[in-house]
Write a sequence for this structure.
């Protein structure tokens, strides 16, 4: 059980005179829950997703982003009682990933020359290694950050695949994991040998984001407009993947969306409306239906009236 | 010689150290006829080779430095008068150091970082390489000799295959008159490889010559001559993918490739020079009808490199492909590219050039595609991609196209990009740290090169770039 706790979060664009985007966000997402975050364009939804993941383009000017973790969920790592709460804002993006934060991108990067299978195995092993280091470093200062000669042992496989024995998950073992997850998402096995997102259609990219979440098994997955630009078949595949994240891995999902459409397939436990960099209103699934009918203006009016 | 003597990586100090060894030539400042005669005599060469050397020397002395090209690397430090005294120490160390421990520490370190096993290290570094290479040659010989394939040291080829060498050596592809450094090479060349593949013969494993680059004394001016008779096929791989220990500050190699009718030659090289080296080479292939020439090269290290492998598509239907990669770090100016002459109809060429610049380094693609009048239905496609790490680094593209025939297909595409923050963040958000994310992007960027190379070279190329990116190569 992990909980992402965002309180009074303020953030602006990280440049001189940068625009203030988040103006005091409060939100709590726990594993096993699906939260939908809705709101008009420019209200700060994507910014919040990126701030959670540690994007350098934004500067946090106030508030906290904490992650509370359950030691039992981290297999093979000794976690002391005082290591269960982490201030994400003090960590690098890869350290946040290691602790179980996943960001599904609206526009994922295309990396030529790097096959999906190589990338995903590298990411999985990097995450496991970083995780050990995070808890070791807290534990004892003498902990060695890793033997630099370790990866100089040579390669058994293609050079692009990295040394066969590097990391916790070997090539053969990983192939199995990947095949299983891809089958779950109805993805063609040829995907594994394609270059990361390069030449993928919009739908394939979104599916790929969900596949990555399935493999990295985050405790909290923030999915930024994972449903935009999908046809109905692909929307169903992606939804199936999101449901599996919660149901089979127990991940918490913060799903950013414009449309009610995906919520027909992925039923949220909570729905939040962000307006002008704040969560203006929260409710259950019925809130999404209201928004579908009435748009966002009535929420805005409600907020201003209350103020 | 103890390793302590060589530990100081300061160029000046190393140079001074080497000078002590070179007392025989101390008095001979500048490149003289006398020097050339000594080299030739030392090698017991036939008179005609001595005469070619002397003629090349004359041409070298007459020609100007290539310093008037737009954007040419600064060669003002290349002091021709200092060149000759640099030769002797290498003769002294012919055969390499006797023990692994005697090698300079930076070389030992590099091999360790590359993760190369001890035996391979010895071969690569030139320790006992003559012994090692004898064995390698011997095995190869037995397999190939039956088919008439020749693969040997270039100096040995002058003795044992004199007629072939006399016909092809710097007469057709790279005459000394080609450029100042080709002339210099013609005068003081030494070592290198000779490859001869008879008609209708396919050498189905790559012919590799990296193990002998350091062992053979004056390898800094090595000459490679490849002759592929009609319908033969060979893949030759040259170079040492580890940094060279060298008191030289000049490497001027020469490569000549003859691809006869219907033959197919691939020449691959991964080379990494010490950061004080000026790397000025001339490489050229002549492709007859329906022949295919492929150049694959990774240029790393050096202070400045000027290298433009070229192919003359002489016969109809001939094809030429170039894949090059260059990496420039702090203080480095890597000026590379390709030249192709389409001199016959139905000829095709592709050039794919990739460069990476970091910490203020400069890369430049300098290319020439010439399509002669009458080379109808020929096509060429040039693609250059540059990747930069920071705002201090620079990358230029200087493609020259001389198209004298209208019935041709010409394409040129160039991209220059900085390693994108969004790309790095994407990988970081998946768990890779900043360095690993950048390394992965660069590995992907050079993937078209690595996939053309045998696995050992691809691995070493990747590792070298990784080490360059960490800034851990001296």
């Amino acid at each position: 059980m992990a909980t992402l706790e965002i309180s009074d979060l303020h953030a602006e664009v990280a440049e001189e005179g940068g625009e203030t985007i988040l103006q005091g966000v409060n939100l709590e997402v726990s594993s096993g829950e699906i939260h939908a975050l809705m709101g008009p364009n420019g209200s700060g939804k994507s910014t919040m997703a990126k701030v959670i993941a540690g994007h350098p383009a934004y500067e946090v000017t106030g508030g906290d982003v904490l992650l509370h973790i359950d030691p039992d969920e981290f297999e093979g790592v000794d976690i002391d009682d005082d290591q269960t709460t982490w201030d994400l804002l003090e960590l690098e993006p890869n350290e946040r990933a290691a602790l179980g934060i996943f960001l599904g991108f609206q526009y994922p990067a295309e990396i030529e020359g790097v096959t999906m299978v190589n990338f995903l195995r590298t990411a999985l092993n990097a995450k496991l290694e970083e995780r050990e280091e995070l808890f070791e470093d807290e534990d004892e200062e003498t902990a060695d950050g890793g033997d630099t000669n370790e990866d100089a042992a040579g390669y058994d496989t293609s050079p692009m695949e990295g040394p066969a024995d590097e990391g916790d998950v070997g090539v053969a073992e990983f192939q199995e994991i990947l095949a299983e997850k891809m089958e779950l998402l109805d993805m063609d096995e040829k995907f594994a040998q394609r270059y990361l997102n390069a030449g993928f259609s919009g739908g394939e990219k979104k599916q790929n984001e969900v596949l990555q979440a399935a493999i990295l098994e985050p405790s909290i997955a923030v999915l930024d407009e994972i449903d935009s630009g999908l046809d109905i078949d692909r929307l169903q595949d992606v939804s199936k993947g999101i449901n599996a994240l919660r149901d089979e891995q127990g991940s918490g999902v913060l799903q950013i969306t414009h449309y009610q459409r995906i919520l027909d397939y992925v039923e949220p436990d909570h729905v939040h409306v962000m307006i002008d960099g704040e969560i203006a209103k929260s409710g259950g699934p019925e809130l999404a239906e209201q928004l579908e009918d009435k748009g966002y203006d009535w929420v805005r009016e409600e907020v201003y009236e209350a103020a | 010689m103890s390793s302590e003597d060589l530990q100081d990586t300061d160029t000046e100090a190393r140079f001074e150290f080497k000078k002590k060894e070179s007392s025989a030539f101390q008095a001979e400042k500048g490149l003289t006829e006398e020097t050339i005669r000594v080299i030739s005599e030392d090698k017991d060469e036939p008179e005609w080779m001595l005469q070619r050397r002397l003629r090349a020397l004359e041409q070298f002395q007459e020609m100007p430095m290539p310093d008037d090209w737009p954007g040419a690397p600064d060669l003002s430090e290349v002091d021709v008068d200092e060149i000759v005294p640099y030769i002797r120490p290498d003769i002294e160390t012919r055969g390499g150091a006797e023990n692994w421990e005697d090698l300079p520490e930076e070389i030992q370190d590099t091999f360790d970082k590359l993760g190369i096993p001890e035996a391979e290290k010895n071969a690569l570094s030139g320790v006992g390489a003559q012994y090692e290479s004898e064995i390698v040659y011997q095995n190869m010989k037995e397999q190939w000799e039956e088919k008439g394939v020749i693969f040997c040291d270039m100096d040995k080829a002058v003795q044992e295959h004199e007629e072939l060498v006399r016909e092809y050596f710097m007469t057709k592809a790279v005459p000394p008159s080609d450029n100042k450094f080709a002339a210099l090479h013609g005068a003081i060349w030494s070592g290198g490889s000779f490859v001869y593949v008879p008609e209708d013969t396919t050498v189905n494993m790559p012919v590799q010559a990296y193990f002998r680059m350091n062992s053979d004394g004056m390898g800094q001016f090595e000459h490679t001559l490849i002759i592929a008779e009609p319908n033969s096929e060979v893949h030759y791989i040259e170079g040492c993918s580890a940094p060279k220990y060298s008191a030289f500050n000049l490497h001027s190699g020469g490569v000549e490739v003859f691809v006869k009718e219907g033959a197919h030659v691939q020449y691959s090289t991964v080379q990494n020079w010490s950061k004080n080296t000026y790397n000025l080479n001339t490489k050229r292939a002549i492709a007859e009808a329906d022949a295919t020439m492929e150049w694959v090269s990774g240029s790393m290290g050096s202070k400045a490199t000027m290298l433009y492998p070229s192919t003359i598509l002489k016969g109809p239907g001939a094809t030429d492909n170039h894949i090059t990669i260059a990496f420039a770090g702090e203080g480095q100016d890597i000026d590379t590219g390709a030249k192709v002459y389409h001199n016959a109809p139905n000829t095709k060429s592709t050039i794919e050039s990739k460069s990476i610049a970091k910490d203020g380094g400069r890369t430049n693609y300098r290319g020439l595609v010439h399509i002669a009048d009458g080379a109808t239905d020929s096509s060429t496609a040039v693609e250059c991609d540059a990747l930069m790490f920071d705002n201090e680094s620079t990358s230029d593209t200087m493609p020259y196209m001389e198209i004298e025939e209208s019935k041709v297909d010409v394409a040129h595409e160039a991209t220059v990009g900085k390693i994108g923050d969004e790309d790095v963040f994407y990988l970081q958000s998946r768990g890779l740290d900043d360095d690993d994310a950048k390394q992965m992007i660069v590995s992907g960027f050079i993937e078209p090169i690595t996939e053309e190379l045998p696995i050992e070279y691809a691995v070493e190329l990747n590792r070298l770039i990784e080490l360059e990116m960490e800034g851990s190569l001296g």
In short: Confidence is low (pLDDT under 50) at residues 139-165 of chain A. Chain A is about 35% helix and 20% strand. Strands of chain A lie at 3-13, 20-30, 34-38, 58-68, 85-87, 101-104, 220-224, 252-256, 270-275, 278-283.
